[in-house]
Amino acid sequence: MYGDRIFNEGIYASVNYQLSDRTTLSAEGRLQSDSIENNYTLRGHDEFLANSTDSFQPRVSITHNLTDSLTLYGQVAKGTNPAGVNIGYMDSEVIETIGLANASGHVTYEFDTFRTFKEEELTNFEIGLKGTTLDDRLSFTAALYALKWEN
To answer: Could you state, in order of their start, the residue ranges of all structural domains in the chain?
Structure first.
């Protein structure tokens, strides 16, 4: 019925630099290529949809050990969710229904508006505190973060 073929290739690199005995700066990056293909074969159809994404996802972080058991960190990172396809929008009944809804003014989009969708992009800003106590029997983490999500 649905014949998804998904391809993903990427390369990742990371570098860490010791700024002092207690502070480390890290930079990472992922270069990634994603592709999705789908055949719609219901009700005698043989139609094909494809979408692809090329992206770079960096991350920069700084970590400072306040004590041997307490660490403060901050980071900025970008992530993605690859572009894709919505094969259900190729169904003739869906196309007809959207056409009728559009003609009557109930929707403002056409049948092919959502067949493919863009890559989602997320930027994360985060600061946090990690530590251990009670002779390393109890560990804790607290973080404050803000996300900027697009598409």
So the answer is: 5-150
